[in-house]
User: Which sequence fits this backbone?
């Protein structure tokens, strides 16, 4: 009887192993190979993925600004997403970064950056630091970036990450972004990476004449519109509606976050 049981167990083990061979020769083996890659090999692979991302997801969809395309190809997005998502970091989709916040999809980051019509000597304000990815893209193009994050944990993480990666021209402030950063204004451009109920008046006031503000705003149909606000030389503003978008809500101090 014991011999029968032993034979049965052995047969079952061989059956399981046989069923697993395709997995080991395919996805499983790929995972093992990926794990054994050196840091240099992984970085080379990420460089290739960024080039492919820019070509197929961003340039192919109409983004033409050379500085923006180069910034998107330069900034290592995989270092701005949670570690468990790094293998997917160059897909054209947003990812959760925790605490109810997200990192935007690459195309939207590039599109909003292009909409700002930036110059190398610009001073830019970002509302909604998140992981710090958008700030890093901006910092690659302009002279100085001031970015505000209301969620303290995210703000601290982004500050450390940006410093570690060498983005020395970015200052992070933990505060209510809807109030802007008055003592650093006026700004050549302002970008908001969360959806507001309406355009905060403080941001319009802090926008330099001739500057641009890009912001997603709730519309009357339970959706959001990406708006471009231009301030002319007389201080008058013109608002242009562009595309429908989907962002997390802009958090304010009244929402219980300090």
Assistant:
């Amino acid at each position: 009887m014991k011999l029968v049981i032993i034979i049965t167990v052995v047969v079952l083990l061989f059956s399981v192993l046989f069923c697993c061979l395709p997995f080991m020769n395919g996805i499983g083996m790929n995972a093992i190979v990926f794990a054994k890659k050196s840091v240099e090999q992984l970085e080379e692979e990420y460089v290739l993925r960024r080039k492919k991302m820019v070509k197929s997801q961003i340039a192919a969809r109409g983004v033409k600004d050379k500085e923006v395309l180069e910034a998107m190809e330069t900034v290592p997005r995989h270092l701005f997403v949670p570690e468990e998502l790094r293998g997917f970091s160059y897909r054209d989709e947003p990812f959760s970064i925790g605490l109810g916040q997200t990192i935007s999809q690459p195309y939207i980051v590039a599109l909003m950056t292009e909409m700002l019509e930036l110059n190398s000597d610009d001073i830019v304000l970002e509302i909604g630091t998140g992981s710090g990815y958008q700030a890093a893209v901006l910092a690659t193009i302009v002279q100085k970036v001031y970015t505000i994050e209301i969620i303290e944990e995210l703000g601290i993480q982004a500050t450390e990450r940006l410093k570690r990666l060498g983005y020395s021209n970015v200052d992070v402030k933990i505060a209510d972004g809807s109030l802007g950063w008055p003592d650093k204004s006026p700004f050549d451009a302002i970008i908001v990476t969360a959806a507001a109920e309406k355009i905060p008046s403080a941001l319009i006031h802090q926008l330099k004449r001739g500057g641009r503000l890009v912001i997603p705003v709730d519309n009357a149909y339970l959706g959001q519109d990406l708006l471009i606000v231009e301030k002319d030389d007389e201080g008058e503003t013109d608002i242009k509606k562009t595309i429908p978008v989907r962002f997390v809500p802009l958090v304010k101090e009244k929402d219980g976050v300090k």
The radius of gyration is 23 Å.
